[in-house]
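Inverse folding, one chain.
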């Protein structure tokens, strides 16, 4: 497969490779230069990053924070 380097230095990974590797926008790579070759190694994302990537328009973190605040408030009212 061929790929072309843009004037901004960006390289587009062909769709078939992205799909085969499960790469999504925002994927990170380690870049190495060895024996005259450029080597790209995908960096595994954390479970949290995978979750946010799967639901990009959700409010997961803010919803969890609000739930935690409510639990703390409930516990404080029981203890007093």
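Residues assigned per position:
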């Amino acid at each position: 497969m061929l790929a072309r380097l843009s004037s901004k230095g960006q390289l587009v990974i062909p769709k078939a490779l992205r799909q085969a590797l499960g790469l999504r926008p925002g994927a990170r790579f380690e870049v190495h230069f060895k024996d005259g070759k450029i080597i790209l190694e995908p960096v595994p994302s954390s479970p949290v990053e995978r979750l946010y990537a799967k639901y990009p328009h959700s409010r997961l973190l803010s919803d969890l924070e609000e739930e935690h605040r409510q639990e703390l408030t409930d516990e404080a009212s029981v203890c007093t």
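Helices lie at 15-21, 47-54, 60-79. The first strand starts at residue 29 and ends at 34.
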